[in-house]
Amino acid sequence: MKYSLEITQKSDGESSTVAVDASGEVYGDVLILHYIFDSAEYSLEISDSEMAQNRFGAIKLSMRFIEGRTTAARFDDGVNGGEFPIFTRKLEVHFDGADCKAECEFSYGEDGDVVNLSVAASVFQ
Fold first, then answer.
1. Is 91 helix (H, G, I), strand (E, B) or coil?
2. Rounded CA gap, 10 and 31, in Å?
3. By residue range, what is the domain housing residue 17?
């Protein structure tokens, strides 16, 4: 299916939005979206209990969000790589089998600055 995807990130009074077309696949209660932004390929996997975002290409990034848990974000630019902690304070997902909205509040570590991430994916009619 083809989707209209909008991702908004807010932190420290700053806000940025990415609006792109995406292809999507539904597997039960899981939505997997594939899209291109800024010449890089991404995937976004959303279910009721977690959300994962992956960036592919010269710079790789993998982030997984599970409410109430600390997970490791991993990165690799071909020269350097590593990981850093992400603590997910809140993850709310509304998925009707086609359209999806997700709200995620996380920080880099439990004491880091809070980042709000909003995802809206709508099937093209």
1. strand
2. 23
3. 2-123
Nearest residue to 70 (alpha-carbon basis) of 89, 53, 51: 89
pLDDT tens, position by position, 38-59: 899 999 999 999 999 999 999 9
Single-letter code of the amino acid located at 56: F
CATH of the domain at 50: 2.40.128.20
> Which residues are registered as beta bridge partners of 27?
30
31, 24 Cβ separation under 8 angstroms: yes
Other Cβ atoms less than 10 A from the Cβ of 116: the count is: 15
Give the pTM.
Answer: 0.92
Q: Which of 83, 9, 82, 81 is nearest to 44 (CA)?
A: 9
- Kindly calculate the radius of gyration of the chain based on its CA atoms and give it in whole angstroms: 14
Under 8 Å between Cβ of 74 and 68: no
Q: What is the tally of structural domains in the chain?
A: 1
